[in-house]
Amino acid sequence: MATKQGTWGYRDRFGDAFGRTYFRRFGPGVASSIGVGTYLGDPTDEADDRYRAAVTAALDAGVNLVDTAINYRCQRSERVVGEAIRDADADREEVVVATKGGFVPFDGERPADPGAYVRDEFVSAGLVDASELARGSHAIAPDFLSSCLDRSLSNLELDGVDLYYVHNPETQLTERSRADVYDQLEAAFEMLERRRDDGDVGAYGVATWNAFRVPRGHDQYLSLPEVVSRAESAAASAGVEECGLAAIQLPFNVTMADAFTVEAHRHPTEDRDVSALWYAHEADLDVVTSATLGQGELAGGIPAAVDAELAGDTAAQRAVNFARSAPGVKTALVGTGSADHVAENVAAGTFDPMGARAFDAVFE
């Protein structure tokens, strides 16, 4: 597991190479405000080689947060992340490792008949009940998630992960009521509290695409205050003094800024609604952003008015620094499927992000 001593030691090794807010408090220690994402790419040996080289290079260059998921690239991303951690100069105690469970994972390659694969490998094997599946491919039932966590630890060849996300729980809203999904989350959190107690998980969170950045009336909306309340109830049921819900992940970039602009969550202490980013900040939840470069589109350029306010030598660096400027954001993930892009991405951290006043002015 990442430790306070390990992550601060990692930070100190880079001295003044980065801007003053590049490393930020995260979990028990600190993490780089630029993280490695491992979502995109084909499930091939060639892509594995590129990812392995890229993640290793990033860990050696000042990035100490790596994000993956069991379903990314048919479990290949998790396996490559584990290999990169072992190959890199960084010690395990210096690196924050996050993974996710929720989508039924293929193994190595996409099967010719995905439906039959799910039935044979998961339903018939007793790993998930057919009634727990949404869209035939997603479940957050405690036993299913626990089995996915076991498989993730095996893929990564690690004794534990620092952060385990329940992955896109809003997918379940296609099959069941919002109240039922909250109940499912509470049951999943209670299981994760037990796995925390066993030392398999340092903390847990919720990784979403739509749930926290859409208006209340949206079909995929989930309330952050209710999710926090369910986590607190789960901790109490598990007999845990301190709730293990520590982070959320959601998309955020210069053209997808709903997490900052859509006020759909009740403030923890005041009678008003706030955005997901503001709620997380007030509730002391770490925020990790995905889609920082809009899956590569923003590397070619960002809106001129915003671009002029940002520091960075390239459009990609300025897009990264926009995400790093948002309130409450601890780490902005950048997909790094090639070592050629690592140096450019990491160099974004040598520039300071926008100040709060300048960031707010973008939306005025």
Overview of this protein structure:
There is one protein chain. The protein has 364 residues and is an alpha/beta fold. It has a single domain (4-362), classed as NADP-dependent oxidoreductase domain (TIM Barrel), CATH 3.20.20. Helices cover 38% and strands 17% of the residues. α6 links the parallel β6 (161-167) and β7. α5 packs across α6 (178-198) and α6 (178-198) crosses α7 (224-237). The longest helix is centred in the middle third of the chain and has 21 residues, at 178-198. It holds the Pfam family Aldo_ket_red. One of its GO terms (cellular component) is cytosol.
Question: Any chance you could write out the topology, listing elements then pairs?
Answer:
Elements: H1 4-13, E1 23-26, E2 29-32, E3 34-37, H2 45-61, E4 65-67, H3 76-87, E5 96-101, H4 114-123, H5 142-156, E6 161-167, H6 178-198, E7 201-207, H7 224-237, E8 245-251, H8 258-261, E9 263-266, E10 273-275, H9 276-282, E11 286-290, H10 304-307, H11 315-325, E12 329-335, H12 342-347, H13 356-362
Parallel strand pairs: 3-4, 3-12, 4-5, 5-6, 6-7, 7-8, 8-11, 11-12
Antiparallel strand pairs: 1-2, 9-10
